[in-house]
Design a protein that fits this description.
This protein is an alpha+beta fold and 553 residues long. It has 17 helices and 27 strands. Helix 4 (50-65) packs across helix 5 (72-92). The chain is elongated. The termini are far apart. InterPro entries: Papain-like_cys_pep_sf, Peptidase_C19_UCH, Ub_carboxyl-term_hydrolase, USP, USP39, Znf_RING/FYVE/PHD, Znf_UBP.
């Protein structure tokens, strides 16, 4: 057959293929690989561009025929096709609004709280969520797990968990449809600065997909396995307005490379998001980051102390957030850091013993004064994030009714530890007499009652009830406070915003928390997934373990 007679059968074949592409039924019967190779053609509809499209199809066929096309012109076409391949790549992802599979999306099964890992390869690179069954799969190429799933299960709509772009597989085109915006908002909740400022004024309830109502910011947290100590700590910190507002806007901490910081920010945004599909949140990704950052000191399945966890979390977040510009400052220190003046009296005999053991005196002591009776007094200033209060020991004997009386103590009695006069005896690291005085009050004051004492045999819990005010805790009446600067006003009044309670025996039991909702001045009791409104009087009757107070403006 002559060279000039070749184009006519090819043109016929091209027209036949274009007719097949136009016919939807025929295209489905053809093999997937062939339709994928001709995907670029589907976007060329104008008659003027038919010649260019035919040239591309000829190039593809020349590769497929191999030795059959011996002509030099065909070899040149092949080379040209190889050279043009990188330029054609962007065209292969077609953008379409009219995806016929959008009605198969099932929002009931979507859950973006868990780690973004492929359910088959366990890789976290390039992961897509199937919007029909909710499972995670890797990639969207011809041999990827997502592509295979689309063919096996007949599920066609996928979203990239990183870029938030939606695709239809196996066809491979990108879906541009506004109906998927709500899914993007649940995957990555966003807040504007205006929305953040108005959060505490919002009194509106949100509705979940199952018809239940929930309050943004007052959502239950899943107890994955003995993780109630984490849940109560998070719920308490969510009431600290500057901390919450800082973490609701990711730009504030984008300089930090710590996964813990970013997971905490994500969790904060999910708790306060008003368009969730369900009225609870699983802190799964945050717990994984905690396990890694704490070297498994805190882990899923092992009960821990919320006071220890709060202390570790605040210090770790501060270390990861502090920037060199602000000289060791961070949002954590701005909210919680106060200052104590510590006066330590140590007998000379104990110092000599300590030096023999190879230890040295406290190097950062402000001043050291010796007295005639052999006592050395050290005065130093120490920053603090929380204050520990000692409870009086419970009575040893039963009363006439053969029952132990549960003693009660006012909060002001145990706050006397920080009046600068009350002496506290300490044994470790050496025997000493300590006096504490608050020299700077923080915006948010964290108090914890030392309920648990550990000896060589077991852990004991002190059941003493602490009587505390829910509003208007006035500190200046009970502990001496430093005089404010000239233009400043002394701010010593505090309101309770969170109260963590322990129920049950030491080493067992569970934690719950009472938190205040500012928009309505209402109190809620939260225990994992259970969120119930309660009376302020009930808050004061509980066995308080840790409390957060907010300073009056």
């Amino acid at each position: 057959m002559g060279a000039d007679e070749q184009p006519s059968p090819r043109r016929k074949r091209d027209r036949e293929e274009e007719d097949e592409l136009a016919d939807g039924g025929a295209a489905e019967k053809r093999p997937r690989a062939e339709s994928a190779s001709l995907l670029g053609l589907s976007s060329y509809e104008d008659d003027e561009e038919e010649e260019a499209a035919r040239g591309q199809a000829n190039g593809h066929r020349a590769e497929g025929e191999g030795e059959g096309g011996e002509d030099e012109d065909e070899d040149e076409d092949e080379d040209d096709d190889v050279r043009r391949a990188p330029e054609r790549r962007p065209r292969q992802v077609e953008l379409r609004r009219d995806c016929p599979y959008l009605d198969t999306v099932n929002r009931q099964v979507l859950d973006f709280d868990f780690e973004k890992f492929c359910s088959i390869s366990l890789s976290n690179l390039n992961v897509y969520a199937c919007l029909v069954c909710g499972k995670y799969f890797q990639g969207r190429g011809l041999k990827s797990h997502a592509y295979t799933h689309s063919l096996e299960a007949g599920h066609h709509v996928f979203i990239n968990l990183q870029t938030e772009r939606a695709y239809c597989l196996p066809d491979g085109y990108e879906i541009n449809d506004p109906s998927l915006e709500d899914i993007r908002h649940v995957l990555n909740p966003r807040f504007t600065k205006e929305q953040v400022l108005n959060l505490d004024k919002n009194k509106q309830w949100s509705r979940a997909l199952d018809g239940s109502n929930y309050l943004p910011g007052m959502v239950g947290l899943n107890n994955i396995k003995e993780t109630d100590f984490v849940n109560v700590t998070i719920q308490s910190l969510m009431r600290v307005t500057p901390l919450r507002n800082f973490f609701l806007i990711p730009e504030n901490y984008q300089h930090s490379k710590s996964p813990l910081v970013h997971r905490f920010g994500e969790l904060t945004r999910k708790i306060w998001h008003a368009r969730n599909f369900k009225g609870q949140v699983s802190p799964h990704e945050f717990l994984q980051a905690v396990m890694k950052a704490s070297n498994k000191r805190f882990q899923i399945g092992v009960q821990s102390d919320p006071v220890e966890f709060m202390s570790w979390l605040l210090n770790t977040l501060h270390l990861k957030l502090k920037s060199s510009k602000k000289k060791n400052r961070s949002i954590i220190h701005d909210c919680f850091q106060g200052e104590l003046e510590v006066v330590k009296e140590v007998h000379r005999k104990h110092i000599m013993e300590k030096r023999e053991d190879g230890d040295e005196l406290n190097g950062d002591a402000g001043s050291v004064v010796g007295t005639a009776d052999g006592t050395i007094t050290e005065t130093s200033k120490v920053p603090f994030l929380m204050l520990g209060l000692d409870l009086p020991p419970p009575p040893l004997f039963k009363d006439a009714m053969e029952k132990n009386i549960i003693p009660q103590v006012p909060l002001f009695n145990i706050l006397k530890k920080f009046d600068g006069e009350t002496v506290t005896e300490v044994v470790r690291p050496s025997i000493a007499r300590m006096r504490y005085r608050v020299t700077r009050l923080p915006k948010y004051l964290i108090l914890h009652m030392r309920r648990f004492t550990k000896n060589n045999f077991f852990v004991e819990k002190n059941p003493t009830l602490v009587n505390f005010p829910v509003k208007n805790l006035e500190l200046k009446d009970y502990i001496p406070l430093p005089k404010p600067k000239e233009n400043d006003k002394l701010r010593s009044k505090y309101d309770l915003i969170a109260n963590i309670v322990h129920d049950g025996k030491p080493g067992e039991g569970c934690y719950r928390v009472f938190v205040q909702r500012k928009s309505e001045e209402a109190w809620y009791e939260m225990q994992d997934l259970h969120v119930t409104e309660t009376l302020p009087q009930m808050v004061a009757l509980s066995e308080a373990y840790m409390q957060i107070y907010e300073q009056h403006e």
